[in-house]
Design a protein that fits this description.
alpha/beta, single chain, Rossmann fold, nine-stranded mixed sheet, 9 helices, GMP Synthetase, Chain A, domain 3, 354 residues, 20 strands
Length: 354
């Protein structure tokens, strides 16, 4: 499976080959089409690999090198799982600067899909024609949350962040089959999936064929992917049912040590979900006595006295005494990564600015 054999791409119904793709995309006014052109220039080059950037949601953004044959192997696995067929329509509304957008191009090259290109925005589905038929649509949870109608979409793949309980409940009432993917740049997009609605709905991620899991001595996930040269060691805490099924439990580097009590923010955030209408997270701030104190950050103008009292009442009833935030901070707008994820470290730094 040589990357040079995958040089035909259909964009909005226009089939192009080789350098025609580059020329066409760079001549278009849309910025994401320009990015497709730049990507295809690299794809068609003699270099057998590509340099890609991580999103920076869990640390500083970094560049890593991926082999084109590995990207094709990832595309082949997704194509087999979702049973892609030639000329089916696939939505591309993700930023092509990052792995999720790049891999949609590779999937289109591999499976001969037609890319329906929408500029990355908060609700790309609303930009589609009313009679559009989309067979596969990768979206971020934020894009999905702003979607009021899955008009003519067969399958939606959510990635790039967690799916809230509120969004998951909303998705029980849409016609499209919805999946949530687990993966990262280092694994070349998703390597595990869980069904969010309909038959087979599950809270657990199931590994793609050939992929397996184990835990290291920190209880963090180690991923074995057949087309990668070595296992991917993560900072993701997980619980394994077996070597192919896991539940994500947060990140080990987010763990808060408050007076010797280890607190997992992900568990608290999950329990608060049913009552929170705005974006939020919990994190530890330095404290002289405790080392770190547990704090709740809410993306909002400050609550009035009645709203704040109601929130504290909920927290008091839902949380163990060691898991109750000692401070609640309101931030008008959270800091974000370029891919729209909450940047927790930079958001906490914004406190001093406010």
């Amino acid at each position: 499976m040589h990357y040079k054999n995958f040089n035909r791409l259909s964009i909005d119904g226009t089939l192009l080959t080789g350098q025609e793709i580059v020329k066409y995309c760079l001549s278009q006014p849309q910025s994401n089409l320009h990015r497709i052109g730049e990507f295809m220039k690299d794809w068609l080059s003699e270099d057998a690999g590509l340099t890609v950037r991580t999103s920076g949601s869990t640390g500083k953004p970094k560049e890593i090198r991926l082999e084109k044959k590995q990207m094709l192997a990832s595309a082949a696995a997704t194509a087999a799982y979702f049973n892609f067929r030639k000329d089916e329509n696939a939505l591309l509304s993700l930023n092509v600067d990052y792995i999720a957008g790049k891999m949609m191009i590779v999937r289109a090259l591999y499976s001969q899909l037609n890319l329906v290109c929408i500029e990355p925005c908060i609700d790309p589905i609303s930009q589609l024609n009313s009679d559009a038929e989309i067979h596969f649509a990768p979206l971020t949870p934020m894009q999905m949350d702003n979607c009021s109608d899955t008009r003519g979409i067969r399958t939606i793949l959510l990635g790039g962040g967690s799916v809230s309980a509120t969004l998951e409940e909303k998705l029980q009432h849409v016609e499209a089959e919805v999946f949530h993917g687990y993966g990262m740049t280092e694994t070349i997009s998703h390597i595990a999936l869980r069904r969010v609605n309909g038959p087979g709905k599950s809270a657990f991620f199931t590994a793609m064929p050939g992929v397996s899991f184990e835990l290291d001595d920190r209880n963090c996930l180690v991923i074995h992917v057949p087309y990668l040269d070595c296992p991917v060691v993560t900072n993701d805490l997980a619980e394994l049912s077996d070597t192919y099924t896991m539940e994500w439990r947060g990140r080990v580097d987010d763990i808060i040590n408050s007076g010797g009590i280890k607190i997992n923010p992900s568990e608290i955030e999950t329990r608060l979900l049913p009552w929170m209408e705005r974006r939020y997270f919990v994190a530890g701030l330095p404290d002289e006595k405790l080392g770190q104190k547990l704090c709740l950050f809410i993306e909002s103008e400050p609550f009035n006295e009645s709203e704040l009292h109601h929130l504290k009442k909920i927290i008091n009833h839902s949380e163990h005494k060691y898991h109750k935030p000692r401070e609640i901070y309101f931030i008008r707008q959270f800091a974000e990564t370029e891919t729209g994820k909450i940047h927790r470290v930079n958001t906490v730094k914004m406190l001093s600015e406010q």
